[in-house]
Write the structure tokens for this entry.
Amino acid sequence: MRLKAVSVVKLSSPATREFWEIPVLFEDDHLLALDKPAGLLGSPDRYDPQRPNLMKLLHTAIAAGKPWARERHLTYLMNAHRLEFETSGVLLLAKDKPTLVALANLFGSEKPLKKYVVLAQGTPTEDQFEVDAKLAPHPLKIGLMRVDPKNGKKSKTRFEVLEKFSGWTLLRCEPLTGRTHQIRAHLRHAGLPMVGDELYGGKKLWLSRLKRDYRLKPGHEERPLLSRVALHAEELTLPHPATGRTVTVVAPWPKDLKVAVKYLRQYAR
């Protein structure tokens, strides 16, 4: 398998004047894995198609013959799975249609192993636990999932405590099924809402709530340490669609998560 040097994919949106340098986590002749930043849509928004999204930006860059696309001779690139708007981490793409079909079959059979890191509110009673609770869309609130034992689809998530703080917990999560908002809904069901996940009862993380002698400089406004959903797709392991060899792709923690954990270690032991 021929690997290419680690680099970045440079993308821009003239409409919003935004610019992204997205690290390449893994690449060969069939696959391209990117470290998707939080705050960038992975796919088009059905309600607002004009919002910048990663797939449209990639396709536009390929069509324009941007240097990173031209040097790879890219004519095709499609995502094999999805990451939500606020979620950061590993996103796997196929460089040709046969690879995409093979990946679709893999993800459909739930063979890829996904590992996420999440910062949750509260403290679980056990260091390892599972939530096995069927999920279905909320009948009244669009975009919200809820536990529904009668009409929901089978949903199971495995959780492992990485670090405990006073009022917060750092967890590693393995979704064993692939339902929408699965980790978020299961954490709420377990009484451990995700930091920053206001849709499911989570709250932003503020340094002023951690540091007793916190003082804000006059004329300044405090910004939360974490205001987005504190969910990071850290690792993806799967059999390579062309060779069958096991491939593991790892995305380093984003800066906001590292900063949040740093201050929790300092002030919330």
